[in-house]
Amino acid sequence: MSRIVCSVEVENVADPTKRLEFNALVDTGASFLTLPSAWKEKFGDLQTIREIELETATQAAIKGEICGPAKIQIAGFEPIFGEILFIEMEPGDGIYEPLVGYIVLESSQVGVDMIGHRLVPIKYMDLK
Length: 128
Prior knowledge:
Number of strands: 9
Number of domains: 1
Shape: globular
Number of helices: 1
CATH topology: Cathepsin D, subunit A, domain 1
Radius of gyration: 14 Å
Helix content: under 10%
CATH superfamily: Acid Proteases
């Protein structure tokens, strides 16, 4: 199975000088834009909205912290304003692997072309 990785820009709405650019794995099985807790301080004083329990792909139960608001832009598509999920992550080979989940994809009107292994614009939002 192929992996789709995209560029992501995240900015604290209350303090635009607190921003970060990075690459993230597109994971349509994940809900949120998911970042390592170790990065949270880079965004300054983000408000903690709530703490939640999550189930990972390995079926482990973990806790996460949803914070925001943040300006989020993936792969040069239109930016959105939303929430970030911070979790404890172990860096593989010293590198964290953030995830772009379906909430950010749908809000950004971005679809996943699994044949072309790329992100594509979605013309219409779904109201069905």
